[in-house]
Amino acid sequence: MKALICGAGIAGLTLAWHLERAGWEVELVERAPAFRDGGYMIDFYGPGHEVAERMGLRSRLLRSRYPVNELSYVDRDGRQTSRLSLTTGMEGVISLLRADLARAVAEDVRAPTTYGTTVEAAEQDTAGVSVRLTDGTTRRVDLLVGADGARSRVRDLAFGDVTPRYLGHQVAAYILADAELSRRVGTRYQMLTEPGLMAGAYALRDDRLALLFLRREPDPALPADPAADLRRHFGGRGWILPEVLARCPGPPELYHDLVTQVEMERWHRGRIVLVGDACQAVSLFAGHGASMAMAGAWVLADELSAGGDLPGALARYQGRMAPAIAEVQQFGRRFVRWMAPSNRWRIVARDLIFRLAALPGGGRLFVNSLSPGGHHLISPRRASPTPR
Ligand SMILES: Cc1cc2nc3c(=O)[nH]c(=O)nc-3n(C[C@H](O)[C@H](O)[C@H](O)COP(=O)(O)OP(=O)(O)OC[C@H]3O[C@@H](n4cnc5c(N)ncnc54)[C@H](O)[C@@H]3O)c2cc1C
Asked: Which of 158, 176, 251, 277 is most buried (CB neighbours < 10 A)?
């Protein structure tokens, strides 16, 4: 069986890893001109973590891990207003760059990846899918997979216009090289919150700093110049922001997007199927996206390699994943108001919750609240493939 996977992100690579071990002939196409490096920090836990363990990636992920000892909120002068120690209760959480997770999977994927290319057109019949790529070449495959994120091209082609649910925020992230700022921020996640705004920083290896910006914005239109937009909204807020924003890069080093969730009644049509954010984006507010993308890829591979008919396998994949995704998405929508509080009262309440969580046992409760279910997804219908 032949599969073409559009999108070499976490979901696409995880699916390729499993399908090729199940004997499929797999090929990936990726729109970016090369492997997507850098990006932003993610907390990796939950069902995807279990998938990574089964793939033998644990030691690789631990090598890429960053020790986040503390969440710390600061004011415009950089003074701490509240903190949450993360030294206990975080054993199941690996904080790392999104690209480092993708690289850990990619290192063991043999399938060829064509960069700088996407799917231009796809037509399916009962025997297969004929795909035309933007580099002018064509493919005939048994299955076309859209693993191309929340703005999926494959989804547009197979399902028409699907408008993701806008969660009323824009997000931006980039990595900056600066030894002094990196030392000052250190291995704690520092954040400044003002009504409707959140800016966060974390020190990376090699004197770098990861920066994250979140802003409430009712209008779901992205600005033409995202770096200028960040400077306008955050540049006058004190702390380290004027310095880091003076050196804010443009895209693609600057990641900038709307915060959305993707909800669809069907994740497959004939021989075309979606996986990861393309059909189930939960948003950064849910904190589970990469983990659920890996879980989705694992469940899809599990069903596809169990034998039996293709439509049945795709339907069972969605049936296993969709309830857990709905649960995580609902959690994400509830969390919006705490991650980027819309008013001062919520900021004070959030600081109070953090102080309570700092009491013995509190940290563990906090982490458990971040992890709404999903572990049952990874009970296999067959023995899982072993790493090679
Ligand atoms: C700021 C931020 C913080 C986050 N924090 C967390 C966290 O703490 N924990 C967590 O688990 N998740 C987190 N997430 C969510 C997580 O990053 C995503 O859910 C996850 O990356 C989804 O994986 P994916 O492979 O489905 O999509 P993506 O990671 O978006 O990968 C899609 C791939 O497809 C490529 N592509 C896109 N369009 C095309 C096209 N037309 N043709 C070909 N290729 C294409 C892209 O270049 C990319 O390589 C966060 C997200 C953001 C934005």
From this structure: 277
At residue 388 the predicted structure's pLDDT band, cuts being 50, 70 and 90, is very low
Structural domains for the chain: 2-165+260-378 (3.50.50.60)
Q: To test the ligand 1 pocket, which listed residue (14, 18, 30) has its Cβ within 8 A of the most ligand atoms? A: 30
The CA R_g of the chain, rounded to the nearest whole Å, is 21
Pairing between β-strand 25-30 and β-strand 2-6 as defined by DSSP bridges: parallel
Report the distance separating Cα 167 and Cα 85, nearest Å.
29
**In this structure, what token pair is assigned to residue 69?**
């000892």
162 beta partners? none
190-205 average pLDDT score = 93
Q: How far, in Å, is the centroid of ligand 1 from the Cα of 237? A: 29
How far from the centroid of its chain's Cα atoms is residue 41's Cα?
Answer: 10
Smallest CA separation from ligand 1 atom 15, residue: 289
Residues 314-355 pLDDT 10s: 999 999 999 999 999 998 898 887 766 666 665 665 565 555
Tens of pLDDT, residues 126-170: 999 999 999 999 999 999 999 999 999 999 999 999 999 999 999
Strands 197-204 and 188-194: antiparallel
| Side chain identity, residue 123 | E
How confident is the model over 42-83, as pLDDT tens digits? 999 889 999 999 999 999 999 999 988 888 899 999 999 888
Rounded distance between C-alpha atoms, residue 203 and residue 67, angstroms: 10
Average of pLDDT values for 229-249? 97
Q: Which protein residues touch ligand 1 with a CB less than 6 Å away?
A: 6-12, 29-32, 36, 40, 42-44, 98, 118, 147-149, 153, 171, 173, 212, 276-277, 284, 287-291, 293
Encoded amino acid at 51, one letter: V
Q: How far apart are CA 173 and CA 299, in angstroms?
A: 30
Quote the CA–CA distance of 24 and 46 in Å, as a whole number: 27
Indicate the pairing of strand 129-133 with strand 138-141.
Answer: antiparallel
pLDDT value at 306 more than 70:
yes
Cα separations (Å) of 37 from 100, 200, 252?
Answer: 8, 20, 10
The span from the CA of 101 to the CA of 92, in Å, is: 15
Among 285, 357, 336, smallest CA distance to 83 is for: 357
